Amino acid sequence: MPETMPVRALWFGDGGLHLIDQRKLPGQRQVLHLSRVEQVAEAIRTLTVRGAPAIGVAAAYGMVLAARQPHQSPEKAARLLRSTRPTAYDLFVGIETVRKAWAAGEDPLEAADGYRARIVEECHQIGAAGAPLFRRRPRVLTHCNAGALATVEWGTSMAPLRVAWERGVPIFVWVDETRPLLQGSRLTAWELQQEKIPYAVIVDNAAGYFMASGQVDAVIVGADRIARNGDFANKIGTYEKAVVAKENGIPFYVAAPWSTFDPRRPNGASIPVEERNAAEVLRIGGRPLAPSRSAARNPAFDVTPGRFVTAYVTPAGVVAPGRVGEFASRHRTDLTGTA
Length: 339
Ligand code: MRU
Prior knowledge:
This protein is α/β, with parallel strands linked by helices. 37% of the residues lie in helices and 16% in strands. It folds into 2 domains: 10-122, Four Helix Bundle (Hemerythrin (Met), subunit A), CATH 1.20.120.420; 130-331, 3-Layer(aba) Sandwich (Rossmann fold). The protein has 12 helices and 15 strands. The strands form 4 sheets. A 7-stranded mixed beta sheet has the order 6-5-4-7-10-14-15, sandwiched between helices. Helix 2 (52-67) packs antiparallel against helix 3, helix 2 packs parallel to helix 4 (89-103) and helix 2 packs antiparallel against helix 5 (108-130). The protein is globular and about 60 Å long. 5-S-methyl-1-O-phosphono-5-thio-D-ribulose (MRU) is lined by residues 47, 50-53, 88, 144, 146, 150-151, 156, 183, 221-224, 234-235, 300.
């Protein structure tokens, strides 16, 4: 892929799935070519590809590869891919979209291509819907990475900022570094640099300081799963940012495509939260950060109650928390997942 093209996290071609190895960024832009469903499952598990919409699309193409392998079936491949990460609803929607097509004798590649196109289109719609929110609020804080790398192209939380920037709004982004895996400093900062949008990386603990001192006009984040009442899971630390934003009277927005809205979860208490290996907390780049044999806990996500959200930015427009479940069920037509 030429250096000048807009960022694309993954694409299908030459009989396999190409994806940018997100573990290597920003130091190296390395593209992997995967030809087996087992490799796709491993790439999702290890965060080689990550971000809720992107893992949904990667898994959809994983199903395509499985359909071309011997000794595979729609159920077996779906089971493997579903076991990779529990929180992002998009993963289950991507798998189910292709599983159904394959089981019905339709072309799995056509189903996966259609799913990818739909996600990218919804990100563009989110950008157009959300951009006006930032016209008079250009200093924006974000957590984790919900840009092109997390969504295949364009982004969810990043999309309104990109559109506003293109329209001449002097956007400035506060980028939480996002411990332990640094999706903010490694990936969001990298994307913003490609776009030439001004930003500053801050340690996660500094967000409250910048909010309380009047240097943040708005917060926008993505989501991994949104329950019917508007409670949502996102990268660990999101909950704290939402509480501090409310305390300081700063609007807090959540941007997501329909594949993130889970119609079967009434509230956040029922959202499964992934706990990852403690080594991600205790070591960085192979170097120890704590005495050997230290215990650690590593929840990858937290759940923020809907009452902390000012509005959700969806492909069909901006919607207030009280109405979000009903709004989503009206607009998300044929998407289903099984987890
Ligand atoms: O563990 P990750 O990097 O997959 O977590 C990603 C996030 O928490 C994103 O904010 C979320 O998936 C939304 S991506 C549009």
